[in-house]
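Subject: design request, 827 residues
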């Protein structure tokens, strides 16, 4: 309201000044008809009066002027008015001062105009600096006094000669003043943002009229000719515009200037606050990704401050006021004493780094807490800053490793296998429980010499050669040999594989008792060839298990699969002789549960609890994830063997996935279809509403697309849509979401994109499409244009339909406005 009042008052004052100027102009015109000297005297007196008014009002109102430009200019006009008085009194025909030549009025004129030009340049240079009115007034007074003394003393060159006219010095000085005024005009334009719009144009008009004045006084021949008269009109109008800018507008608008400065400060504070909010959001996001929260505690008030991630870890809503007592209720009852003891020790200066359990929503979590304390000189703890990390997954992984190790031990015993390590530098051996049992030695009594003497003599040469190649050439070995056990002297068939860790200089390997397997293989040898031929003809990967779950036969598809997918297929040989149940049960994450499920199903078939078993599962291969169906059935005959088949259904799964993709993607453009786009857009809007950040939407329509189909056929229309989809995908970011929501209508979601940025993106898309050539099957390429509507999320409660409606409204305006343009939604 106050701003409108101020502007209205200024307009009324301006009208009064303009009416005054019109009246003065009429009066001057009448005086010119009487005598030119009367015209000149009145014109100069009016200009001098305005100059003194500028000086006086700037002096009385200097504390309200926040613009140094106006302060300096107002200070200069006092001196300029005094010099103009001398110019008037010495003008030809006044005869008020004896011995005055025609040089005096022209030199006083040059002095005043030069001082005015200098003041305009200095004012522009000091516009952003503090300027004192009194200092500026004395400086210009000193310059004016020096100029007047130079004129009275006659040291200046002639400026006007009777019968000749203007001298070169006078003309050159006028051109110099014009040059200075042009510099002042350029400086004023560069500082235009420091002025209200109308103030800038008033000062600019004053400058332009001053330049016009100087040009007139370069070209007059006589003191009384019409160019001299026109120059005085320009001079009067120039000083009146300066009066309007400084007195009427500049002084009556301190509140507007102050308001503009306050707005600028508010904008700066808003930018700073936005940056702080973004930094806080980034920190919260980083903590959420790392699963690490932070906290602070003030010991005096016992108040806690938590980050968002800490609230999430403890299952509390962000913004809740946590207390020390609240925190204590979360600690697992079995850990409370340990946590309390560690905390008390930390208050005494000990390190606080503790892993313990908390109970959140009746579920147990593991967390790791660390803290640093600030202490007073007397040793009292003042405050603490700490972190809390959710280590539940790590603890579960450690438990899984322990379980896996236990399963490995059970698998070794079940499969009559074990693993060992020989440390060459220390000439010592370490083995698992399964290996010690195979050697017939207690685990703690195993030594290298005993193990080396176990193989039968006829196998030692081959073993020595294999070990030498392993150590010297790093060639892994895979051998079968016989040993004599240390406890019973029983001869057993052993299968051993080994590798060499060159950095640690450690040999490590696996041994398996294959005595029973050898016997079983011999027993099955006669029937194996027939079964092998039959199984090799089957495309599924098939193995045959005996009653213990040991693999006794595999088909060609099984062997090929092992060759293609096992990291060391030559070492496993299709896993014949390996206990398949033990392999499944010893599997570790991922896929451990599925492998155990397969083992349990096969075991039930072996135990006749099921006639058949089937399960669908997936596993990661070297190149891609593959899908299978595992089936187990009884092998025909009295052997009790079980046939296990794995059918590769990867291609079927891929076909299903392709169908799913086709349900989400518009086949013609490669963009999301309407349903999938709406789903993705809802998700992105929800993310923006939850975490903050800018979000913009586009609605895009192909101009005159129906005429393309009607003129060139639907095939050409399809080609246009295909290329348009490709252009969108090339021009947009990976995080941007674009979809075809209608025949020739597209929509886009631009995450983390402000209104200005969205407008730039839309305009860039429009230009890219406008410049692109769309080829046809026959004939010259087509050119098309787009109409685009843009909207930006401002109301956090908006839904996606609202935003799309806003963008569609802006699109309608773009099409109504002539198409091939971008319009932004406005309320």
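Subject: RE: design request

Done. Sequence follows.
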């Amino acid at each position: 309201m106050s701003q409108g009042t101020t502007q209205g008052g200024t307009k009324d004052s301006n009208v009064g000044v303009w009416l005054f100027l019109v009246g003065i102009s009429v009066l001057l015109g009448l005086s010119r008809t009487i005598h030119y000297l009367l015209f000149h005297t009145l014109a100069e007196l009016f200009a001098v009066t305005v100059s003194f008014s500028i000086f006086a009002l700037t002096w009385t109102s200097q504390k309200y002027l926040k613009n140094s430009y106006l302060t300096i200019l107002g200070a200069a006009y006092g001196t300029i008015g005094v010099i103009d008085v001398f110019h008037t009194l010495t003008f030809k025909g006044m005869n008020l001062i004896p011995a005055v030549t025609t040089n005096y009025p022209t030199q006083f004129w040059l002095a005043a105009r030069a001082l005015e030009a200098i003041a305009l340049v200095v004012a522009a240079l000091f516009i952003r600096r503090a300027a004192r009115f009194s200092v500026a007034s004395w400086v210009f007074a000193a310059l004016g006094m020096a100029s007047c003394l130079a004129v009275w003393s006659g040291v200046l060159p002639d400026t006007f000669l009777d019968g000749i006219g203007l001298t070169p010095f006078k003309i050159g000085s006028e051109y110099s003043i014009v040059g200075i005024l042009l510099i002042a005009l350029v400086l004023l334009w560069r500082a235009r943002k420091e002025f209200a719009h109308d103030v800038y144009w008033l000062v600019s008009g004053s400058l332009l009229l001053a330049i016009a004045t100087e040009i007139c006084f370069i070209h007059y021949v006589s003191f009384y000719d019409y160019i001299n008269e026109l120059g005085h009109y320009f001079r009067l109008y120039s000083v009146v515009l300066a009066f309007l800018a400084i007195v009427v507008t500049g002084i009556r608008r301190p509140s507007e200037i102050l308001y503009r400065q306050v707005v600028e400060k508010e904008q700066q504070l808003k930018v700073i606050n936005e940056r702080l909010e973004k930094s806080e959001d980034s920190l919260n996001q980083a903590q959420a990704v790392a699963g690490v929260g932070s906290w602070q505690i003030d010991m005096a008030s016992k108040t806690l401050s938590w980050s968002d991630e800490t609230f999430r870890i403890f299952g509390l809503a962000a913004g809740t006021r946590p207390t020390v007592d609240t925190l204590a209720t979360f600690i697992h009852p079995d850990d409370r004493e340990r946590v309390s003891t560690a905390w008390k020790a930390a208050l005494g200066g000990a390190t606080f780094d503790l892993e313990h359990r908390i109970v959140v929503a009746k579920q147990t979590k593991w967390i790791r807490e660390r803290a640093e304390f600030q202490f007073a000189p007397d040793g009292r703890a003042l405050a603490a800053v700490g972190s809390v990390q959710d280590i539940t997954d790590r603890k579960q992984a450690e438990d899984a490793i322990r379980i896996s190790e236990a399963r490995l031990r059970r698998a070794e015993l079940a499969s009559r296998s074990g693993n060992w390590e020989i440390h060459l530098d220390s000439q010592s051996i370490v083995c698992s429980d399964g290996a010690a049992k195979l050697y017939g030695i207690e685990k703690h009594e195993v030594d290298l010499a005993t193990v080396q003497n176990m193989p039968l003599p006829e196998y030692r040469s081959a073993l020595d050669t294999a070990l030498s190649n392993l150590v010297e050439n790093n060639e892994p070995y895979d051998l079968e040999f016989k040993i004599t056990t240390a406890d019973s002297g029983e001869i057993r068939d052993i299968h051993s594989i080994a590798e060499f860790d060159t950095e640690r200089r450690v040999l490590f390997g696996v041994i398996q008792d294959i005595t029973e397997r050898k016997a079983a293989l011999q027993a099955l040898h006669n029937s194996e060839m027939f079964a092998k031929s039959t199984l090799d003809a089957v495309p599924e990967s098939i193995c045959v298990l005996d009653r213990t779950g040991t693999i006794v036969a595999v088909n060609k598809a099984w062997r090929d699969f092992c060759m293609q997918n096992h990291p060391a297929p030559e070492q496993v040989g299709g896993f014949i002789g390996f206990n398949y149940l033990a392999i499944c049960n010893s599997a570790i994450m991922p896929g451990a549960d599925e492998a155990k499920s397969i083992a349990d199903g096969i075991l039930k078939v072996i135990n006749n609890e099921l006639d058949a078993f089937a399960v669908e599962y997936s596993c990661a291969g070297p190149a891609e994830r593959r899908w299978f169906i595992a089936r187990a059935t009884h092998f025909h005959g009295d052997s009790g063997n079980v046939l296990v088949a794995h059918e590769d259904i990867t291609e079927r799964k891929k076909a299903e996935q392709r169908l799913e993709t086709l349900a989400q993607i518009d086949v013609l453009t490669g963009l999301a279809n309407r349903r999938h786009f709406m789903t993705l857009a809802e998700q992105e809007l929800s993310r923006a509403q939850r975490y903050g950040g800018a979000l913009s939407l586009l609605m895009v329509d192909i101009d005159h697309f129906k005429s393309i189909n009607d003129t060139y056929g639907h095939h050409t229309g399809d080609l246009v849509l295909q290329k348009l989809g490709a252009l969108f995908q090339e021009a947009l970011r990976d995080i941007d979401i674009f979809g075809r929501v209608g025949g020739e209508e597209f929509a886009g979601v631009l995450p983390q994109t402000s209104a200005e940025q969205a407008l730039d993106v839309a305009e860039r898309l429009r230009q890219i499409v406008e410049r692109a050539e769309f080829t046809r099957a026959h004939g010259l390429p087509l050119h098309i244009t787009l109409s685009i509507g843009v909207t930006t999320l401002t109301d956090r409660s908006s839904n996606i339909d609202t935003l799309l409606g806003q963008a569609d409204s802006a699109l309608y305006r773009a099409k109504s406005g002539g198409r091939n343009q971008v319009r932004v939604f406005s309320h």
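The longest strand covers residues 363-375.
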